[in-house]
Every structure is written in structure tokens, then in C-alpha cells.
């Protein structure tokens, strides 16, 4: 689903500071025949203006015309999600710097007083020969290298902006390097995430490598409990755990994620912080994962995290190479 809306915020630009395929839920745009409701919220100089939603209208009927409107003082955006991992998308092709600051992105991501999202994504002009550049601010204002579900939403948004049809692909410059998403005939988006990075210092993690320069099923003490973790980078750092001391298989529904997640994210052995996947093995081809994302907290899905989880499961011998 995609939602289009406008929000009035000052335009300020901040200073600048890969293994599996995933499918996209096809976004739908919205057009309302009802009066546009308005409400003010706690952030000064900001006003949210959103039209009511309809999921029956095709993308082409409203989004292009909406995004072409250029009223002064209004930020035009669309909202997409990949498996519930949701983002505000902003057309930023006319500038090499994001139209809003990281602080404003935090306000937009607020689920009670803003639009609500796991992050804000900007479509910027390409550099180094790429078609586009992708930058993203997390809901806490930090800037990650890349985002798997985010780049799928990015691809669908670009297709909408450029009025592209059928099967096509383009090159995207990200903080994790070159990414090439492919929009398929059925509207789903497939992304080659590239090879995983396993060398401990490149993940990065200060945990000692125990298998060919990689950290595989190593012990990590978090809040007095020993967890067994495997560290993987998909262009961004991940810590994957299937078990802790006294339990050989996690029951992820019983985890107090909001309590334990931040303690992994900010653990001293992860100098760039980390995304953390807590994984329950259901079978050799079926895993159940919950994720605490660096900079966004608990999210409903994580594309790079799904890839990292598959890598870790294979390295630990817990599952096959193809899995749900």
C-alpha cells in the first residue's frame, strides 16, 4: 500500500554525516473524494495534512499528479511498506542534499504526532554513474548504510515517479555500495543484496573471530545472560542469535524485545551499534524471526536482517540454504 499526502515543514538540509531475493507487497495509492481533514501536532511550525485512504485506486490514477504539485512550503511524500516495514518516501531528485533534516525526519516518523514510519527515504540524483542515490534517516534520526525493504520501496517509488511500466531495473548508490533492484512484471521488487561480509572487523564487531575470521556461534554476555551469536554484515551490521545459555532454541514470542533489544544494539562489542535478529528454528527450511533494528527499534520486517539470518543459519548448521 502507498499513501500520498503533504506536510508543511521548513526545508532544511543537514550536513552529510547483500545474498537473497525478497518480494514486495504491491503498493496502492490513494485518492479521496472526502474533505481533507487537518490536525495540528506538538512540533512547532509543522502541520500534517492527510487525505482519507482508499486501497481500490490504481497507482497511476493519483500519485503522479499529486507528486507533481509544488505548493511552496509543503513537503510532498508517499508512504510505502514492505511486509509492514514502513517508510516515508520523498522525491529529492532536484537536490543532492535531503530536503529535510534528520531532526525533522524524527518528527515525521513519530507514530502519534507525525506521519509514522520506521524511516524517511530520499530519492536523490545518482553519483558515480548510478541512476539514483538513496539516503535514509531512521526514526531516531541516525543514518544507516542501507535498508533492504527500504530499497524495495525506493524502487517502486521511482517507478511511480518516472511512470515506468513492465519489467525494469536501475542502479542505486547507497552507503553500502551499488544496489540494483529489479521491478518484475507482477509489480513485486527483487533485490540482489550481494555477498555477506563475515570478517569480524568489517561487520564490525569487537568479538573475537572463531571461524575463518568470522564470529560464528560465539558467546556474548548481555544483561548477565550468555547468548550464542553469529555476526554478519549485509552492508549494515547484524547480530543473529538462535539460542542462549540453558535454551537450545528460542521461543521468540516469549521475548521481551523492548527490554533486550536496546542492550544488544548498544553493546560495547558493536562499535557502530547493531541490528539484532532473534530466531526460532521451526524446521530445516522455516525460521521465525523477530528483529530489533538499529535506529528504529522493533519493526515488523527487515530485509537485510532476513538475509543475515539465512547466512547465520547456514553457518551454524541449523537450516538449509533455501528457506522461508
TrEMBL record:
It is found in: Plastid, Chloroplast. GO terms for molecular function: diaminopimelate epimerase activity. It catalyses: (2S,6S)-2,6-diaminopimelate = meso-2,6-diaminopimelate. This is diaminopimelate epimerase. Pfam families: DAP_epimerase. The keyword Amino-acid biosynthesis applies. The lineage of its organism: Eukaryota, Viridiplantae, Streptophyta, Embryophyta, Tracheophyta. PROSITE patterns: DAP_EPIMERASE. Belongs to the diaminopimelate epimerase family. HAMAP family: DAP_epimerase (MF_00197). GO terms for cellular component: chloroplast; cytosol. Pathway: Amino-acid biosynthesis; L-lysine biosynthesis via DAP pathway; DL-2,6-diaminopimelate from LL-2,6-diaminopimelate: step 1/1. Keywords: Amino-acid biosynthesis, Isomerase, Lysine biosynthesis. NCBIfam families: DapF. Residues 19-38 are annotated as: Disordered. One of its GO terms (biological process) is lysine biosynthetic process via diaminopimelate. It comes from Glycine soja (Wild soybean). Its EC number is 5.1.1.7. It comes from the Eukaryota. It is an enzyme of class 5 (isomerase). SUPFAM superfamilies: Diaminopimelate epimerase-like (SSF54506).
Amino acid at each position: 500500500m502507498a499513501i500520498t499526502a503533504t506536510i508543511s515543514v521548513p526545508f532544511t538540509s543537514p550536513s552529510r554525516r547483500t545474498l537473497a531475493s525478497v518480494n514486495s507487497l504491491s503498493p496502492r495509492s490513494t485518492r479521496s473524494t472526502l474533505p481533507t481533514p487537518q490536525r495540528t501536532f506538538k512540533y512547532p511550525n509543522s502541520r500534517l495534512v492527510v487525505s482519507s485512504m482508499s486501497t481500490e485506486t490504481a497507482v497511476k490514477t493519483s500519485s503522479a499528479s499529486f507528486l507533481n504539485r509544488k505548493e511552496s512550503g509543503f513537503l510532498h511524500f508517499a508512504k510505502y511498506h514492505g511486509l509492514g516495514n514502513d517508510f516515508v518516501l520523498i522525491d529529492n531528485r532536484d537536490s543532492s542534499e535531503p530536503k529535510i533534516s534528520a531532526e525533522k525526519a524524527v518528527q515525521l516518523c513519530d507514530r502519534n504526532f507525525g506521519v509514522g514510519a520506521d524511516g524517511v527515504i530520499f530519492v536523490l540524483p545518482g553519483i558515480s554513474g548510478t541512476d539514483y542515490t538513496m539516503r535514509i534517516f531512521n526514526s531516531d534520526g541516525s543514518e544507516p548504510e542501507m535498508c533492504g525493504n527500504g530499497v524495495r520501496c525506493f524502487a517502486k517509488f521511482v517507478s511511480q515517479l518516472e511512470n515506468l511500466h513492465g519489467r525494469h531495473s536501475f542502479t542505486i548508490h547507497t552507503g553500502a555500495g551499488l544496489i540494483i533492484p529489479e521491478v518484475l512484471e507482477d509489480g513485486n521488487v527483487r533485490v540482489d543484496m550481494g555477498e555477506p561480509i563475515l570478517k569480524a572487523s568489517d561487520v564490525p564487531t569487537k568479538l573475537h573471530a572463531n571461524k575463518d575470521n568470522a564470529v560464528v556461534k560465539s558467546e556474548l554476555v548481555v544483561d548477565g545472560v550468555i547468548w550464542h551469536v553469529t555476526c554478519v554484515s549485509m552492508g549494515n551490521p547484524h547480530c543473529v542469535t538462535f539460542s542462549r545459555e540453558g535454551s537450545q532454541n528460542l521461543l521468540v514470542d516469549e521475548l521481551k524485545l523492548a527490554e533486550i533489544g536496546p542492550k544488544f544494539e548498544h553493546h560495547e562489542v558493536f562499535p557502530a551499534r547493531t541490528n539484532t535478529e532473534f530466531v526460532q528454528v521451526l524446521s530445516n527450511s522455516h525460521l521465525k524471526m523477530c528483529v530489533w533494528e538499529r535506529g528504529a527499534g522493533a519493526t515488523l520486517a527487515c530485509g537485510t536482517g532476513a538475509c543475515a539470518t539465512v547466512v547465520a543459519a547456514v553457518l551454524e548448521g541449523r537450516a538449509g540454504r533455501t528457506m522461508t
